[in-house]
UniProtKB/TrEMBL annotation:
UniProt keyword annotation of Coiled coil present: no
CMP/dCMP-type deaminase domain: residues covered: 4-131
Enzyme Commission code: 3.5.4.5
Organism encoding this protein: Methylorubrum podarium
Keywords: Hydrolase, Metal-binding, Zinc
Official protein name in the record: Cytidine deaminase
Gene3D superfamilies: Cytidine Deaminase, domain 2
Named cofactor requirement(s): Zn(2+)
CDD domains xrefs: cytidine_deaminase
Length: 137
């Protein structure tokens, strides 16, 4: 991933983070991902009074990618206003794994820029992906 890609991911995540619906947690999150064609897709968290039915920013970005015809995540960036790196929740780590390999970069950023860089393998070791399914059985 090049520096222009990182800048574009930061810009896209910041733009959607400003549109997050986070009245309950007060913690808006933006996510942007780069797909296999070089297109960027973004999503923000959308909370709901019934907590389990909210949507994480990463899930929104993945849905936008699929709706646009993308199928593989080359990199994903999560942007939140926190002094510590914010990484995808466990469910989103598995969602990312559906569309990315273990070596996919997961980037954590704050308003000041990049905070940390991980691979999916570091955040979700020994993961289960679609290649593990037995097709046609």
């Amino acid at each position: 991933m090049t520096e222009p890609d990182l800048d574009a991911l930061l810009e896209a995540a910041a733009a959607v983070r400003g549109r997050a619906h986070a009245p309950y947690s007060g913690f808006p999150v933006g996510a942007a991902l780069l797909d296999e064609t070089g297109q960027i897709h973004a999503g923000c968290n959308v909370e709901n009074a019934a907590y389990p039915v909210g949507t994480c920013a990463e899930a929104g970005a993945i849905a936008a990618m699929i709706a646009s015809g993308g199928r593989r995540i080359r990199a994903i960036l999560v942007l939140a206003d926190s002094p510590d790196p914010v990484t995808p929740c466990g469910a989103c780590r598995q969602r990312i794994r559906e569309f990315a390999g273990p070596d996919a970069p997961i980037l954590s950023a704050g308003p000041g820029g990049l905070r940390a860089r991980f691979t999916l393998e570091q955040l979700l070791p020994a993961s289960f992906g679609p290649e593990h399914l037995v097709h046609g059985a």
